[in-house]
Amino acid sequence: MAQISDPIGGDSLIPHELQRNPGQHLDLDWVQSLVVNRSAVERRADTFPKRRTVKKEWQAAWLIRAIECIDLTTLSGDDTTGNVHRLCMKARNPLSGELLESLGIESVHTGAVCVYHQYVSDAVRFLKGSGIPVAAVSTGFPAGLSPFKQRLEEIHHSVSDGADEIDIVITRSHVLRGDWDALYDEMKAFREACGEAHVKAILATGELGTLTNVARASAVCMMAGADFIKTSTGKEPVNATLPYAFVMARLIREYQERTGAKIGFKPAGGIRTAKQSLDYLMLMKDELGDDWLSPHLFRIGASTLLADIERQLEHYISGRYSAFNRHPMG
């Protein structure tokens, strides 16, 4: 990162090839053995941000890394081609040239742009030549309750329009009923429909009832071939939280120990401040290691986070906070 120290490790701006998860057979014995101690998880999540912090130039370096891991997102009912165009331009140039120069950085861009499948072809056109992948939400997002055949067709349409990644939503009732065979078969069908596009499985953690259900759903989706597991659609009453993240990170680690496959993690929904993005990055470093500090294994789904990161970086350079209205997109 040029003039900024990079204590994180890894190559910040060098693109990585996302790994594919080959999946495995459904191991119901493993699934049923997963039980989460909620009080222990919540206690760790409460104390973690108080014990992990970075300051000054190290904080600036971590915030640049957070930008690289953002799936810059617009998923509103009033989305238009114009909105998607502005979002893509922001993804290509998330920081001003003046700020980049002050930081000693030549360029930076976000990890991906995430849109409804209706706008995939527009996003692909706007991002051409940038190397930024397009992610599409699909399978009846956000509820995931449209007919199964229709959900598969949505995936096929998004992939044919050029989507590099598909964010699918699982059927929550499979988890709530403990019907792990149904969840496994559904996730496996979604993975096959994605073809070469990478698939992120959205668990909708806030609607799964218990942390044990979150753990078991994570395991089943990974066994069925999910390349990433993602907390939320951003539309639930409760979205990404540190307790959910700790549970999902531990399952990713256990899955790697069992299979050797590295699964990505994406917290999404409600992550609006630079401090929150640092908490999740530090959680990844603590729980999973440096490999999960790059966009090939870690993404943050966010629509407003980037503005606060910009403000924090400007404060690092100038000592003053800018107004939010200077950062209208992202």
Q: Secondary-structure blueprint of this entry?
A:
Layout (H helix, E strand, L loop, with lengths): L27 H6 L4 H14 L4 H13 L1 E4 L7 H12 L4 H7 L8 E5 L3 H7 L7 E4 L10 H13 L4 E5 L2 H5 L3 H15 L3 E5 L8 H13 L4 E3 L11 H18 L4 E3 L7 H14 L12 E3 L2 H14 L12
Parallel strand pairs: 1-2, 1-8, 2-3, 3-4, 4-5, 5-6, 6-7
Helix pairs in contact: 2-11, 3-12, 3-13, 7-9, 9-10, 10-11, 11-12
Describe what you observe in this structure.
The chain is α/β, with parallel strands linked by helices and 330 residues long. It has a single domain, classed as TIM Barrel (Alpha-Beta Barrel), CATH 3.20.20.70. The protein has 13 helices and eight strands. Strands 7-6-5-4-3-2-1-8 form an eight-stranded parallel β-sheet. β2, α6 (120-126) and β3 (134-137) form a beta-alpha-beta unit. α3 packs across α12 and α11 (242-259) runs parallel beside α12 (274-287).
* Cross-sheet strand order for the largest sheet: 7-6-5-4-3-2-1-8
Number of domains: 1
CATH top level is Alpha Beta
Strand content: 5-15%
Major sheet summary line: 8 strands, parallel
Put the structure in a nutshell.
By secondary structure, this protein is of the alpha/beta class. Helix content is 46%, strand content 10%. The protein has 13 helices and eight strands.
